[in-house]
Amino acid sequence: MAPSPSRLFAEIATAEPPVETPVLMRRAVVLGGSMAGLMAARVLSDHAEEVLIIERDPSDVDAGPRPGVPQGSQVHALLPAGQVQLERWFPGIADEALALGAPPPPSDQGTAKVFVNGMLGLPPATTDTGPALITTRPFLEALVRRRTLAVDNIRLVYGRAEGLLFDERRVTGARYVPEGGTEPLVEAADLVVDAMGRSSRVSDWLAEHGWPRPPMQRMPIKLNYATALYKRDEKVSDAWVAVFHTMAGKGRTARIGGINSVEGDRWIMLVAGYDEDRPSRDVADFTARCREHYPQMFGDIAERGEMLGGVVTYHQADSRRRDFHKLDRLPAGLVAAGDAVASFNPVYGQGMTSATLHASCLSAYLRSGPKPHDEPARAYFDQVRVVVDAAWQISTTADIELPHVDGPYPPGYKVTKWFGDLLFRTSLTDPVLNARLGRVTTMLDHPATLSRPGTLLRALRLGLFGGSRR
Ligand SMILES: Cc1cc2nc3c(=O)[nH]c(=O)nc-3n(C[C@H](O)[C@H](O)[C@H](O)COP(=O)(O)OP(=O)(O)OC[C@H]3O[C@@H](n4cnc5c(N)ncnc54)[C@H](O)[C@@H]3O)c2cc1C
């Protein structure tokens, strides 16, 4: 019998270091050197004699946000499952982050505040994944890049990938224009990884060579982010981490907010809305929103804190997934990872963690001893599908409730929604359900674990009849 998605998910999300890593190929080429590409390169370094990353952004990327990752200035939270994977592939990375200036967690976990529909909920349940790694996105990415490039057989070149090379059955390499050059160069490869993010053109490149495009699903979320950095100052606020989520409902507008204490003794603060509710780059607008629509700590920081730089905005039109697993024809020698496969509403913080879990899928696939240059990587895409389905279910089941979103509705939506609402409501006050739901929303467990009888019955008992919380 095939293992269930939740069992497969547990294997993918494992913290166990990989063993038995056969070298299967001479050279792998990774297109895109951001979170997904770096993680894939690290995994491939165990299975290829040589790994080459081709990244479009110029060489001074450690300096901060960069054009190829325009979302990099916005608040980025790494979920616990992502932290587990980072530690699995780069042992000691969390300690290294702390040594380099990531803020150590305070002794009192209660300083992490969660506001749901305007009310203070239970703080996030503690997990056994170690202290949360809370940093800006460029800081974390730079750390992962340094650790990846410290591996002997990984090399990075700067240049813009422009196409794939094919023979009748497989991808044989990639073409790119090096930084500062005009003439394309060709790199032969036994395996090419598409890690070029949500705007990857690999579907076009497949189509140009007579291969089908992976079917794309979209959910039009129309999300509007605005973020600003502030100098951290205890006299202004004792905020460490705050998450604010108001769902659309009677008299309520859907809004999201967040405060993280990050490296450099700073706060990064986010306000976000949907559709026509668009925070602007105007500081007065940002401050007014913080004061009027968010808990006091947002207003205090906005009004009395020292802003560093300006307000940066970002609009994301949709959540999207490319279902490579549905293709009836797929060339050998090609895989895709990270946002190139699926990118979600960022308010759930799933993107970077998904990229690390895709790397885990790649490792499981390669450890099974396939011939990636000979056979399409179907077993890899089947595993990735488990991760994408899990993240997609969490984010789209919630987003479909937004007034401006009208589908696509998944099968069994009404029942899922009814139970999801019940579970969510009861988890706000019940520590056991809070912890179980928390393990799913932080991608440590598959959503199907929530339909186990113990959880179902507990939610029903508490939600319908009110009952003992023990
Ligand atoms: C506003 C916002 C907030 C977010 N917040 C969170 C969060 O809190 N937590 C979280 O986990 N995720 C968050 N995400 C999602 C996260 O940013 C992505 O999931 C993550 O960056 C995906 O990594 P990636 O490597 O797949 O793609 P990307 O990070 O998009 O990187 C793609 C890389 O490919 C390169 N590239 C593109 N084209 C080419 C080419 N032709 N040749 C060579 N290189 C190329 C780019 O330069 C870039 O380096 C957020 C996203 C947004 C939009």
UniProtKB/TrEMBL annotation:
Pfam families: FAD_binding_3. Residues 28-363 form the FAD-binding domain. Transmembrane segments: none annotated. It comes from the Bacteria. GO terms for molecular function: FAD binding. PANTHER family: THIAMINE THIAZOLE SYNTHASE. This is 2-polyprenyl-6-methoxyphenol hydroxylase-like FAD-dependent oxidoreductase. It comes from Micromonospora parathelypteridis. The lineage of its organism: Bacteria, Bacillati, Actinomycetota, Actinomycetes, Micromonosporales.
